[in-house]
Structure formats: structure tokens, C-alpha cells
């Protein structure tokens, strides 16, 4: 007779508070809502809580959320959370504070990467406690709570395509397990699939099906993302799935328009790469860009917007009141109105080894040189010296994020200081982070190595002196440009390619109607623009979301006129 299988152990929510009455009250409220799925563990001081955590770790238990009081005599809540992070880095962290300690809690956001500070008292818990814990559990389940993912990528450490496949899965928040082809496990899997390391990268799906060097569309389809529109005619087609496009899709679909969103790579756009957006209204503790994007995506789907990924729009044709959008890999769809929300893409660094046009031999892109945050490799920079190029907020955020793992982060800035280009709060955070070194008046002029990046040549802008430094990971954030050259000439743009709209349209833009264009309406009636791709836009998440939502209001007006 076989023994019955043990019930899976519940993940834990651990609370620590030195005031027994408060400690009991937190545990009671948490049990009331979460006891069915989570085990609530209570401790009355930091050292005891850490002992408990060590036992839990040895027993193989997982912790989803810590709720720690700020003021505790033996060990403060911040000290406890810092130590607890070593044992359970993926657990979400909440600090309980009195109103008078709010400033300390805000500082803790950086020290222990706090997810939330909760003011005491938290009555009624339905309004003040549960929404916070719900959101954190959702985030934990989305990342840390996952068991080892079953999708496997077997690839070469220094292969650009392997890197692209990882980036694609990561940016679509599809969990995977990355295995080096030259590791024992890699050999075993390739042998089992009847393949060898000439067929890389190989993706093994959850059902055990090996895919040899799959395209993004093939991957998306196999992994459950929609790649085909469900209909061939829509009221509204939104092109681009960043915050602007997602907002337009949410508002369009929720207001009854048959809405499709077309995204070339992954929903979230640039915002999906942000490790922490701190200035988006309603998130006082900041929010990770990929989480924001994931929520927006689900919201759009809830309202039945049709979201299709890995389909790049390459042509917009105008046939009377019908607009036809053509895709790069063939196929098309028709619609009555369009919101262009294609954002911007990174500019390439003019340095040897960093050009995409160089081809696979001399370009080190994906082999140590990365445009953007490349979160899928950023996690692997433990104890390394990494370089970040750029002086704006995106570079600053990346430096702060990398500094949590890397031995040292070198921020290479062309200008004489960060002040002109970076927000004050980020400059302060960087100054307070001892393992970030800022190199002003400096440029990277060459990246070189063997199979992967090994060295950089830096040039001092004041003396013109060059220095070679060892570096295996370089992250580049040097501004961005719109990719609008596929749009028809009838859509007026400024001299940098940003789309003109509403009152910014010039008299010679070719506007064909007697009525003036609506706000956000381009020189083609019924084609609107929102977010970073719009000329003179603010280049902020909130602005893109606002414009995406507002564009839908004008879409309604346009549709009512036609
Ligand atoms: C690392 C980083 C950190 C940032 N941090 C902050 C911050 O803290 N706060 C803040 O306010 N802003 C921040 N920003 C800026 C913010 O992310 C952008 O302003 C915002 O994402 C713009 O949204 P968007 O929808 O206009 O375009 P994007 O986010 O650029 O999205 C455009 C989308 O369109 C898709 N697309 C492009 N062309 C096509 C096509 N032809 N067919 C189909 N799809 C297409 C792209 O793949 C992309 O997904 C940050 C940006 C970066 C890169």
C-alpha cells in the first residue's frame, strides 16, 4: 500500500511586531482572509522571526510576504527585512509604521526595496490591509511564487539569438528555465530531443516538445499568447502595446468599441523594462513596469479587447473611411479608426561592437552588450563590474537596480554631470549607493572581446585620453527615436519622425476636412496618436496613459461623424 501523498505546504505570510496586542491583531486579520491558502506565522521580535525563517528555509517552506513593525527594540523592522531578504529574496516586504515614522519608511524603500509601508491602525482591513496584501500576493505569485518553470531554453552563452529568445520570453512574462548547452543538463536534454548543439537555441515547451530556433510568433503561439486577430474588421485598431496603447485598448473596449491591439514584441513597451516606476500616480511605493503592464493587459482582456503580439504593423492604407493595417509577416486587418501608440526605440551607440548592422560576427549585442534593461541577464551580474551608458532616468534606474547584485556599477555619462538629464530623486539615490561610480565627461567608443564582451575602451571627453577596462556586461540607454517610416506620407511628422497632431499640425500638413482636427488626431482623419511617438509628448508613463485614454474620447467623436 502506498502512503497518501502529503498535501502541498501552504506558502507563509510572516508578521513580526513586538507589541503582543498589535501582533495578535495583524495575525488575526490576515488569518481571516488568507488562512485558506496561506499559513500565517507570527513572531514578537526580529531575532526570533529570523530563527523561525531559518527553520522554514531548511524545511523547504516558501514565504510570500513579510509584515514587519518599524519600531522594535531588539532589531528594527528595516534591519529584520534586510536580513530576511537574504533568506527569502522573492518575498514581498511591508513595513508597519506610525504616522510619525513615515519618513523612515520612505527611506526604507531604497534600503530594503520595500514594497509598501502600511500606516497603523489599518482599520477597516477590507480597505487598508487586504488590497495591499492582495496586490503583493499577486505579484509574488507572478514571480517568486512560481515553481521551477517547465519551459526550457537550451542555448549558447554567447549567442545573439539565444539572448533574443530569453528576452522575448522575459518581456512577455513567460517563465522559463535557462540551460547552457555545454552543461551536463543541456547535453542530456539535447540528446533526449535527438539534437546536438548545432541546432541552438532549442526551446522545450511545457509539454516536452522541442522547438529548434523558433521565431517569436511561433513561440508566442505555442506558449499561449494570441498572434492572430479574431476578426477581420474592428471599430478601433491600436498599434503598439506600451502604456499608451494599453490605455487606449482598455478605454476603447470598455466603452463598447470592437478593439484590437497590435504589438510587435511584448505588451508593456518601454515601461515594461522599468525596474521601478516611482512617479506614476497612485503608487506611492513605486511599481515595477512589467507588473503595471501585466495588470493593464489583463484589464484590456477583461473588457474583451483583442490583444495580438509578435505582429509588427508595416503599412497603413487608407481606403475611404476604412483603414487597412498590414503585418510584416503577411496578413492584414481593416478598421474604422486607429490609435498610433508605437512609442520610441533605443538609439544605437556609435561604438564598435555595439551596432546591430555589424552582423553576428563583430556585433556583441546579446553577447554582453544590451540595449535597455535586459532584466533577463541583469539577474546574472552578481559580483561583477558592469557598465551602464546614459545620463537620463532610465540609465539611473538601471544602475540602481543592477547595484543590488553587481560588485560595482559604472555609470558612463557623456555630459559634465547628471543634473541636466536625471531626476533629482534618482541622483540622490545614486549618490547614496556606494557601489555606483559615475564617470562624467566619458564615452564608450569600443566594445570588444572573443565569443562575448570582454573589454571596453573609454574615452575622456576633456583630455581625449582612452582607457581599456575589463567588462562583460554593458547596458546602453542613450535616448530613443520613433520608428514611423512605415507610415504613409499623408500622416504628417516632424523632422525627427514624431507624429504631429491636433493644434500642432501645420497649415501645409494636408488636413482634408473643413472641421479642425481633434486633439491627438493626425493629418489623416480617424487616425490618432498617443504617447511617446507624438511630437512634443512628455515621455512619461502617466502622459502616455492619459493620451491613450483621451484619444478614445475623440475616436468616439470621429466615429459619430462618419
Ligand atoms: C528603462 C526605462 C525606465 C523608465 N522609467 C520611467 C519612469 O520611472 N516613469 C515614467 O513616467 N516613465 C518612465 N519611462 C518612460 C516610459 O516608459 C515611456 O514614456 C512610456 O513607456 C511610453 O509609452 P508608449 O505607450 O507611448 O510607448 P512605448 O512604451 O515605447 O511602447 C510602444 C510599443 O509599441 C510597439 N511597436 C512599435 N512599433 C510597432 C509596430 N510597427 N507594430 C506593432 N507594435 C509596434 C513596441 O514594441 C512597444 O511595445 C522609462 C523608460 C525606460 C526605457
Automatic annotation (TrEMBL):
PROSITE patterns, per database record: RESPONSE_REGULATORY
One Gene Ontology biological process: phosphorelay signal transduction system
Catalytic activity: [thioredoxin]-dithiol + NADP(+) = [thioredoxin]-disulfide + NADPH + H(+)
Coiled-coil stretches noted in the UniProt entry, renumbered to this chain: none
Keyword field: Flavoprotein, Oxidoreductase
GO MF annotations in UniProt: thioredoxin-disulfide reductase (NADPH) activity
Pfam families named in the record: Pyr_redox_2, Response_reg
Domain of life: Bacteria
Keyword Ribosomal protein listed: no
The protein's name: Fused response regulator/thioredoxin-disulfide reductase
Phylogenetic lineage: Bacteria, Bacillati, Actinomycetota, Actinomycetes, Mycobacteriales
Amino acid at each position: 500500500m502506498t502512503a497518501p501523498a502529503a498535501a502541498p505546504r501552504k506558502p507563509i505570510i510572516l508578521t513580526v511586531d513586538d507589541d503582543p496586542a498589535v501582533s495578535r491583531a495583524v495575525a488575526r486579520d490576515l488569518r481571516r482572509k488568507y488562512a485558506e491558502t496561506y499559513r500565517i506565522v507570527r513572531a514578537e521580535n526580529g531575532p526570533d522571526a529570523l530563527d523561525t525563517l531559518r527553520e522554514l528555509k531548511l524545511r523547504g517552506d516558501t514565504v510570500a510576504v513579510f509584515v514587519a513593525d518599524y519600531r522594535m527594540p531588539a532589531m528594527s523592522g528595516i534591519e529584520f527585512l534586510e536580513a530576511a531578504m537574504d533568506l527569502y529574496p522573492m518575498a514581498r516586504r511591508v513595513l508597519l509604521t506610525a504616522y510619525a515614522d513615515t519618513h523612515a519608511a520612505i527611506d526604507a524603500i531604497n534600503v530594503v526595496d520595500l514594497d509598501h509601508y502600511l500606516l497603523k491602525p489599518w482599520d477597516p482591513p477590507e480597505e487598508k490591509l487586504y488590497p495591499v496584501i492582495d496586490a503583493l500576493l499577486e505579484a509574488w505569485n507572478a514571480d517568486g511564487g512560481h515553481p521551477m518553470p517547465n519551459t526550457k531554453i537550451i542555448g549558447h552563452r554567447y549567442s545573439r539569438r539565444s539572448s533574443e529568445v530569453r528576452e522575448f520570453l522575459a518581456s512577455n512574462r513567460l517563465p522559463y528555465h535557462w540551460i547552457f548547452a555545454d552543461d551536463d543538463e543541456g547535453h542530456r536534454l539535447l540528446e533526449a530531443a535527438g539534437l546536438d548543439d548545432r541546432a541552438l537555441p532549442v526551446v522545450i515547451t511545457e509539454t516536452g516538445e522541442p522547438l529548434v530556433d523558433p521565431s517569436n510568433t511561433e513561440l508566442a503561439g505555442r506558449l499561449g499568447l494570441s498572434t492572430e486577430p479574431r476578426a477581420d474588421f474592428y471599430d478601433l485598431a491600436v498599434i503598439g502595446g506600451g502604456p499608451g496603447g494599453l490605455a487606449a485598448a482598455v478605454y476603447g473596449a470598455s466603452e463598447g468599441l470592437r478593439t484590437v491591439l497590435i504589438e510587435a514584441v511584448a505588451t508593456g513597451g518601454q515601461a515594461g523594462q522599468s525596474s521601478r516606476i516611482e512617479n506614476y500616480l497612485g503608487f506611492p511605493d513605486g511599481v515595477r513596469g512589467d507588473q503595471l503592464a501585466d495588470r493593464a493587459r489583463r484589464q484590456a482582456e477583461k473588457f474583451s479587447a483583442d490583444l495580438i503580439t509578435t505582429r509588427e504593423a508595416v503599412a497603413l492604407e487608407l481606403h475611404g473611411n476604412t483603414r487597412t493595417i498590414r503585418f510584416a509577416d503577411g496578413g492584414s486587418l481593416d478598421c474604422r479608426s486607429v490609435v498610433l501608440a508605437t512609442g520610441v526605440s533605443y538609439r544605437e551607440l556609435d561604438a564598435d561592437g555595439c551596432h546591430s548592422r555589424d552582423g553576428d560576427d563583430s556585433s556583441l549585442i546579446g553577447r554582453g552588450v544590451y540595449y535597455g534593461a535586459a532584466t533577463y541577464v541583469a539577474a546574472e551580474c552578481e559580483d561583477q563590474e558592469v557598465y551602464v551608458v546614459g545620463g537620463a532616468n532610465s540609465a539611473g534606474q538601471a544602475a540602481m537596480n543592477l547595484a543590488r547584485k553587481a560588485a560595482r556599477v559604472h555609470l558612463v555619462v557623456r555630459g559634465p554631470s547628471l543634473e541636466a538629464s536625471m531626476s533629482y530623486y534618482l541622483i540622490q539615490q545614486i549618490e547614496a549607493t556606494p557601489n555606483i561610480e559615475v564617470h562624467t565627461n566619458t564615452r564608450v567608443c569600443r566594445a570588444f572581446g572573443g565569443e562575448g564582451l570582454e573589454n571596453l575602451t573609454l574615452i575622456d571627453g576633456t583630455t581625449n585620453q582612452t582607457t581599456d577596462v575589463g567588462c562583460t556586461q554593458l547596458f546602453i540607454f542613450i535616448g530613443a527615436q520613433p520608428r514611423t517610416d512605415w507610415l504613409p506620407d499623408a500622416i504628417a511628422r516632424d523632422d525627427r519622425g514624431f507624429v504631429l497632431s491636433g493644434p500642432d499640425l501645420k497649415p501645409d500638413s494636408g488636413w482634408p476636412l473643413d472641421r479642425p482636427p481633434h486633439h491627438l488626431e493626425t493629418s489623416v482623419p480617424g487616425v490618432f496618436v498617443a504617447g511617446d511617438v507624438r511630437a512634443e509628448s512628455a515621455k512619461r508613463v502617466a502622459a502616455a496613459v492619459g493620451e491613450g485614454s483621451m484619444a478614445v474620447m475623440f475616436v468616439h467623436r470621429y466615429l459619430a461623424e462618419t
